[in-house]
Amino acid sequence: MGRFWDERAAENALYFIDNNASYEDTDEERFWAGGRTTLDKFLELSGVDLPAGGVAVEIGCGVGRLTRPLAERTAFVHAVDVSERMLALARDRHAELENVEWIHGDGTSLAGVGDGVADVCISQIVFQHIPDPAITLGYVREIGRVLADGGVAGFQVSNDPKIHAMPFRERMKMKLRRHGPRGQGDAPWLGSAVELDDLRTAAAEGGMDIENVYGEGTQFCLVRTRRLPR
Ligand SMILES: C[S@@+](CC[C@H](N)C(=O)[O-])C[C@H]1O[C@@H](n2cnc3c(N)ncnc32)[C@H](O)[C@@H]1O
User: Fold this and answer.
1) Of the candidates 140, 123, 126, which has an alpha carbon nearest to the alpha carbon of residue 191?
2) Cα(220)–Cα(228) distance, rounded to whole angstroms?
3) I need a labelling partner for 184 at 20 to 30 A (CA). Which of 21, 42, 148, 163 fits?
């Protein structure tokens, strides 16, 4: 996964983070403004409040599109990503942010973030790209580990298996095309859906309750969990 996302970062990081943008001519201003509106919408729909003065964890921070507004509204952000190349762009773009630790993750865990340190954890447009739902479920257990008692997580998963399948012939066509985005027929882009029952089990194993599910059955399924007292 790390190599795939490093390649996408080198190819056109902003496009692969927000593919509503044009591949040929990305409007940077629109991209960064979109981070703010996306974070607001995400928090509103998932029902997550950012605790001012709190510590946040972001899973799959990319180039820091959501990290910057998150850092402005919390005391500290542990921003984790599997791609060193995405993180290099993030560090460069947000060099003046002193309250962000950019962490190169192993793609399956929140290693580097301590137990019970976080008041809030978020993840948006990351788990839908993970090819094996078992990895997403492992992340859910990890969220329970890093959250402090009473801490809240909001994360997006896909709950629609249909959107992750692409017929072989179409995948080959994509692979062979000479122009346009690469990699969109590959497993780390196509990703996978998770079942809500499995999510409930993983949340419980991580010591959390699922408090809210928005968009069940869709690609943009937002889940809010709360860490129970240890
Ligand atoms: C579509 S981008 C979204 C970035 C950011 N969440 C945003 O909305 O601006 C997906 C990001 O997730 C990261 N990613 C993909 N798989 C991951 C994994 N298994 N663990 C951590 N990060 C991952 C990629 O490197 C990429 O930066």
Assistant:
1) 126
2) 25
3) 42
Question: Which residue's alpha carbon is nearest to atom 4 within ligand 1?
Answer: 62
Which residues have C-beta atoms less than 6 Å from ligand 1? 1, 5, 17, 59-62, 65-66, 81-83, 86, 105, 107, 124-126, 129-130
Q: Give per-residue pLDDT as tens, 167-216.
A: 788 888 777 787 888 988 899 999 999 999 999 999 999 999 999 999 99
* Half-sphere exposure of residue 194: CA atoms within 13 angstroms, side-chain side: 31
Domain 2-227, CATH class in plain words: alpha beta
Break the chain into its structural domains and give their ranges. Answer: 2-227
